[in-house]
Every structure is written in C-alpha cells, then in structure tokens.
Amino acid sequence: MENMGTSLERIKNDIENLSKFNSTPEKGCTRFSYTREDQEVKEYLIQIMKKLGLKIIVDGIGNVSGRLEGKEPNLPAIMIGSHLDTVLYGGKYDGVVGIVAGLELIRVIIENDVALNHPVQLMVFAEEEGSNFGVPTAGSKAFTGQLKLEDIKRLKNARGESYYDVLKRKGLDPDSIDKGIVNPKSIKAMLELHIEQSVLLERNQLSIGVVKGVAGIKAYSIELVGLSNHAGATPMNLRTDPMVAAGQIISAIPAIVKENGLSSSVATVGRIECVPNIFNAIPHSVKFTVDIRDVDNRAMDNISQAVKAYVNKVSANNNLTFKIEKIAVSSGVLLSEKITDLIEEVVKEKNIPYCRMNSGAVHDAAIIASITDVGMIFIPSKDGRSHVPEEYTPYENIKEGCDVLLEAVLRIDKL
Ligand SMILES: [Zn+2]
Questions:
Q1: Residues contacting 381, CB < 8 A, separation 6+
Q2: What are the sequence ranges of the domains in the chain?
Q3: How much is the average pLDDT of 399-412?
Q4: Which of 162, 303, 344, 389 is deepest in the core (most CB within 10 A)?
Q5: For residue 124, what are the β-bridge partners?
Q6: What's the 126 CA to ligand 1 centre distance in angstroms?
Q7: Is residue 1 pLDDT above 80, yes or no?
C-alpha cells in the first residue's frame, strides 16, 4: 500500500468536466443550486458514483450522498464532503476540489481492493454559498437539523419564490427535510478538502494548511442620525453631523480590534449609506455595517461590546441618536483536535511544508462539527483569489491535498 496514491490525470479531468456545467461560460463559473446546471452536474456525478457501485441518496434539500460500504456496515461512516454550487462569476475550484477529492479517494480504495472497516460517504452539500436564499451552508444546516421545514417555508429568493416551492418545483421532497436529519452516531468523522481562499499558504510557500478552527461572524448595521442642513449656511459649531461621527467611528475600528481582540480577529466596514447623499447638504443619517470575525467567540464579543460603547460615546459627544441592529451571527468553531493532529501527522510524514491555521471563511465542515469530529485541509489559492473567475490552484497542489485526505481516511478507519 506504500505507493497507493491518487491520479493527477483523473483529478484534472473531473475538475475540467464538472466546470463545464456553467451558466455563465463567458465569465468564470456560475452554478447556483437548483438551476439546470446544478441539476445536470449532480446527475453527471451520480452516474459516476453509481458506476463505482456507491449507494446514492438525495435528501429533501438536495444534498447528495454516495456511500461505499465497508467490511462492517453497522459502523459509522467516514464522511468526505463539500459543495458544487458557486457564487455569481465564481471559480471552478471552490467546493469542487473537495468533491473531486472524495470521488478520487473512493476510486483508489476500490481499485486497490482496500478493505476498510467503515463505510465511506461522499456528501455534496446543497446551497453552500447561500446564493439563492441568503442562507449560506443551507444544505449542511438542514442535514444537522439547524434549518427546519418552517425555515424553508419562510425563506424567499429574489423572485419572491419560497425555498419550499423551489424544492418542490425541482422534484425534491422538502416535507422530508426534518425526517432526513442525520443521526450523529451514524458518522464517525467528517473531512473537507478546500482551497484556502487567502494568501497565507502561498506567501509562506506552504502546500497544506491544517485547519484548527473556522471563524464565526458578528455583523451589525449601525445608523447615526443627526440634523440635515445647508452645507453653506450652517456654521461649523452649530452642526449635528452624522458623517463626521461615522468617520471617527470607522477610522477607530482597527485600534478597537487591536485593543480588544486577538491576532486572529478581523473587522470590516464594507457598506455605507448616507441620506440624502448630496454634496451640498449636511447628511441627515449615515448607516454602515461592521463585520467582526474570529474563531474565538469571546474575542468577537469583546470587540462588539467595544464598538457599541464607542458608538455610544461618539454619538453622545456629537448630539446624535443611533440604532444598532444585528444582521448576522454565527459562532466560531474549533475543529476536532484528534483529527487535526492525525492530519498533521500525515503531512509531517510526507514531508509536506504546512502550517496549522484558521479559516476566515465559513464551510460545510464547520456546520458538521456540531455533530461529529471534523478535520479540514487547505491547499493554496493563487494570489489568494477566490469567488472570482481568476480563482486557481495548480493540479499538483490539488493532488497533494487528495493524497493527504486519502491517508487521513485510511488512518481514521483504524481508530
Ligand atoms: Zn467553498
């Protein structure tokens, strides 16, 4: 078994073939869940999995699983999962790499007659990007019972169609969603191979990132309200100007993060709106977002408390009123130490330059971590670019990631 490894040629073919299911071939790769391209790519993959003898299940939200039985069918499965949906004008590696890795690993296990004790289950999670209904990782959330039938009935896409109706129209059975919730005892561990989507590996000339944790998010919308007035006729000392206060708060955010967070903490003001937004009037109100992320939930809490306190202080000093609304919350997730150590051991033995790191982006693996031991493996993204047509990871790096994943599965099987 020493020389057993994945095939670069097959990995390359799979990725190229899957990327042909694309609704914007003129620009990058676009494949939203529940579109024709999504349906066709899944049918294509299901055909390949069937030929390999896998047992296929499609659940109520459109998650696809292909299962290779082990020697002991009653043992819990080792799950390999990721997604095939993309953002608008995205790339062809985000998500796809993890699915292709799982497929290739199953091929290698079959052609080498490796008799695993545990079943291996390849999972294609639906709607990871949240492109349709604004809920990222919807498929893995439904799989773990965090997204229920009542949520599916309430959520609507941009055309006003409910998630429930879209699933029905696509021939899926949304009423079975709650019944399809996985029994945590049926999964031994879950692994996800994913592109890094940042620059840390490339900058440090590393080939593998052993992921320790996945960052959570706390995002707020902050509105400061003052008094709109003539830009020429109002003396500086008689103004109640929310723009000046917004500028003061926004420029203080890096210092607030530094004082109250950890080195892993980040915060971003990505959106700003001003009313009436004309050049010759002092604004009536300014509304902006603050997006705070960290693996460490306490650090996120401390930063958001400090931001709120500062908004309060600056508003009081400037005679403004303010409103703070929560717009997104998810907890930071620490992955399984046992699995992370096992992956690190594999990488070290293979003499692959690596580091332990956190993921700033959310992944299906972080959702599955609520029910079982999860490990994640990152491979480099060229120039750190992702969710754009330029997204690229060399096939050699992908193969290396696949080989690490394969070896990790073989070792988890022995645990
Ligand atoms: Zn992804």
A1: 93, 195, 196, 197, 198, 199, 201, 202, 391, 392, 393
A2: 8-214+333-414, 216-330
A3: 98
A4: 303
A5: 64, 82
A6: 11
A7: no
- DSSP E strands, 285-372: 285-294, 321-330, 333-334, 354-359
Q: Which residue type does 254 have?
A: P
Could you tell me which of 362, 365, 209, 213 has the C-alpha nearest to residue 296?
213
Are residues 320 and 293 in contact, defined by beta-carbon separation less than 8 angstroms? no
- Cα–Cα distance for residue pair 386/388, rounded to 1 Å: 5
Class of the domain covering 216-330? alpha beta
Asked if the 8-214+333-414 domain carries CATH number 3.40.630.10, the reply is yes
CA of 128 to the centre of ligand 1 (A): 7
* DSSP 8-state class, residue 175: G
Tell me, in angstroms, the distance from the centre of ligand 1 to residue 120's CA. Answer: 21
pLDDT digits (tens, 9 = 90+) for 26-53: 999 999 999 999 999 999 999 999 999 9
Evaluate whether 58 touches 176 at the Cβ level (below 8 Å).
Answer: no
- Say how many Å lie between the CA of residue 18 and the centre of ligand 1: 15
45: which DSSP letter? H
Is the Cβ–Cβ distance between 166 and 196 less than 8 Å? no
Under 8 Å between Cβ of 102 and 117: no
| Residues with a beta carbon under 5 angstroms from ion ligand 1 | 94-95
Measured distance CA(147)–CA(152) in Å, rounded: 7
Between the CA of residue 202 and those of 65, 198, 199, 270, 384, what are the distances in Å? Answer: 32, 8, 5, 26, 8
| Strands 272-275, 281-282: pairing kind | unpaired
- Distance from the CA of 241 to the center of ligand 1, in angstroms? 42
- Tens digit of each residue's pLDDT (9 = 90 or more) over 174-201: 999 988 899 999 999 999 999 999 999 9
